[in-house]
Amino acid sequence: MLIRKPDDIRSSEITPESVYRSRREFVKDLAIGGGLLATAGFSHSALAVSGQQMAQAALQPGDDLTPERIATSYNNFYEFGMDKADPAQHAHTMSTQPWEVMVSGEAAKTGKFDLSDIIKGLSVEERIYRFRCVEAWSMVIPWSGIEMKSVLEQFEPNGNAQYVEFTTLERPSEMRGQRSLFSGIDWPYIEGLRMDEAYHPLTLMATGLYGKDLPNQNGAPWRLMVPWKYGFKSVKSIVKIHFTARQPKNTWNVLAPNEYGFYGNVNPAVAHPRWSQASERRLPSSLLNQNRIPTLPFNGYADQVASLYAGMDLRRNF
Ligand code: MTE
Questions:
Q1: Contact predicate 51/148, CB 8 Å
Q2: Where are the domains of the chain?
Q3: φ, ψ for residue 243 (rounded to 5)?
Q4: Rounded to whole angstroms, how far apart are CA atoms 108 and 88?
């Protein structure tokens, strides 16, 4: 990310769009699935439904699903290397069973939990989100996940918890990028959110994409997914959740504070020091057809989230 701008995907790597279900079909399935869950009496709260409605409302004309093969082979997961192709090639070395999560800080229930116990009984939803990387490419991805609020609430964060920090697995024996002398990153990868951001109905703990379990290269077994923020906020393969009164350090901000802030909200009006953020390459794109589209404030989710930042100077808090 810091090192260079991404290469274009070769057109030969692009699987025909017809292979994938259209957005329309997928949305229809969501509606039917949601209805069935509700009538079957599952714990599909009013909040969860409204999160799904928010997700659908933000989709723009032309937001067709990105071919699955691209979403799972063009990745940023520096723990496995800096090339876009490295995670798909090398992330299989990470073992995700069992998966323990350490919960600490300003909460009543802290300690080590097995992921399966954390998510037991919580409703998994499918949501199509626009996904915008700070490197100025974007995708449209059908995620499965659990609203972050219902994940976090069970630990009973107290009144001092203003922020929540998430940490990725650090296991150099299985993560070749963590063994590399060239990554420049002080492992483990860390990200954070304000509690009100974490509790927003659009914030997901993603456990899958395209109706399947999350592949390792996309952050198995669970990762953050915050659609109105640049992709670097959506930390992968989370093993620690820490509730804190202080704003957490986040990996890219520590590495290059002038280039990446804590908030990471998608903002076409604030350029990265080395490139404009006014537009993005919607993948698949190629050298001949860049497929450039305008970037939207908060990545198209302004109606749903802009109020979280009322009164804040978004140029300073980038
Ligand atoms: N999480 C960890 N642990 N390591 C990373 O290198 N890269 C981030 C984010 N989460 C990253 C990470 C960046 S820059 C982006 S754009 C997204 O993951 C990419 O997610 P994807 O590979 O599923 O598209």
A1: no
A2: 11-309
A3: -90, 130
A4: 38
Rg (CA), the chain: 19
Helix (H) or strand (E) holding 305: helix 302-305
Phi, psi of 165 (to 5 degrees): -110, 140
- Each residue of 13-22: pLDDT tens digit? 333 343 334 4
Task: Tell me how far apart the alpha carbons of residues 138 and 4 are, in angstroms, rounded to a whole number.
Answer: 17
What is the rounded CA–CA span in Å between residue 67 and residue 141?
Answer: 9
Phi, psi of 188 (to 5 degrees): -80, 165
Cα(76) to centroid(ligand 1), Å:
4
Task: Say if residues 51 and 228 touch (Cβ distance below 8 Å).
Answer: no
Give the angle 189-223-206 at the CA atoms, nearest 5°: 165
Mean pLDDT of the chain: 89
Give the DSSP per-residue string, 103-138: EEESBSS-EEEEHHHHHTTPPPEEEEEEEE-TTSEE
Ligand 1 site residues (CB inside 6 A) read 1, 75-79, 133, 168, 189, 218, 231-232, 234-236
Mutating to test ligand 1, I would choose from 236, 237, 238, 260 the residue with most ligand atoms within 8 A of its C-beta, which is 236
Residue 139 alpha carbon, nearest atom of ligand 1: 24
23-42 per-position pLDDT tens digit: 445 444 544 444 433 333 34
Whose alpha carbon is nearest atom 8 of ligand 1? 232
Pocket test for ligand 1, best of 76, 94, 189 (most atoms within 8 A of CB): 76
| CATH H superfamily, domain 11-309 | Oxidoreductase, molybdopterin-binding domain (3.90.420.10)
Measuring CA to CA, which residue among 177, 193, 310, 206 is closest to residue 261?
193
DSSP-derived secondary structure letter, 290 = -
